[in-house]
Amino acid sequence: MKNNLAPTYQYLFGHYWVLWYKESNSYSIVDRDFKHLLYMYLQAPSLNKFKSGLFAVDSSLDADTVANNLQAYLMQCNTAQHDDTTLSADFIATRSNIFKTYVFNDKAFQVNFDSELVEKTIHPSIAHLEIKEPITPHTTYNIYVENDQLCLFRNETLISMVPKRDYHLIQGKFAMELLSFAHSKEESDWLGTFHGSTIADGNHSILFIGASGKGKSTLCALLATKGFELVADDVSPMLASNFNIYHNPSAVSIKEGSFELLRPLIGDFDSFPNTVFNKTKGIIKYVPCKNPINDKYPCKAIIMVNYKKRSKTKLESISIKEALETLIPESWLSPNPFHAKQFLDWLSQTPVYKLTYSNTESVTREIANCFEQFNYH
Fold first, then answer.
1. Which pLDDT tens digit goes with each residue over 235-245?
2. Which of 29, 94, 187, 355 is most buried (CB neighbours < 10 A)?
């Protein structure tokens, strides 16, 4: 009846189905009962046939209400998410007042800002890459506010423009630009950039996810002091061709609540400047870590971090629903249907866990045990 609205892909993970809709590039996690109702509706030759079939399954259900809800769900899942802002702004060279040059992977890039406030959206996390010596950059970025729009230019070509209150979108776009530039890739090469931090042991990596304030960056900074390699903090890019997570050179963002824990473990901790961009996040220090031995590692697990005071260290399997509802909202996932299928295939082979902890030594041993298991398989 409504097969043109059906999901492009459907994957069963335990008790839940993950449905991917091409039109909106959205992942919907539903239980088996909903999936059954949805496909009864999609495959019914007519609305009356659906109603009679539903009555035979459960006469207590209001068929009209169920049909309306399913139709509304399908319409939402098939509504394309278009950017309302048309990219039409001329480059204005005089908006550049602050000039910074950085080097990563032997490649220089320059970022020009119009104000200290705009500079604060990008510079603190990559300040350790800045150089003072004059050098010709491979690429130049300009970021400035024009008519209450925050604009990002690459070599004087506009690539993103958002209302200045949505500055986090420019941060995300610039992160993608930096990663693609640093690793000589195109945006279309990436499977996704996950909102999470990644740690490696020299052979494999683990992606740590979690809501803001749950301690994923703190845990990764801690593990980096214990001999593990920090591959990426906050934005973890995965390449479609090999499912490897690549090194993100940005520094680790440490919130004030973790200062006392990390101060004894990180040399010259107090020498890193405090950054305050908004009241919600409070005081942050951006702490650079030693570069990983390799610039990419295969990702063997997803772990949702849950710091809880005075708790015992516990690593337990969780549902795909719990993992994806944490991972997806702030991640960028490629809209390419082939990449979406790759992502779902990869997920089907990747274990997902929740890690509850409070003791640093205990959690370090737990993560070390995880890596040992990967190395034996």
1. 999 999 999 99
2. 355
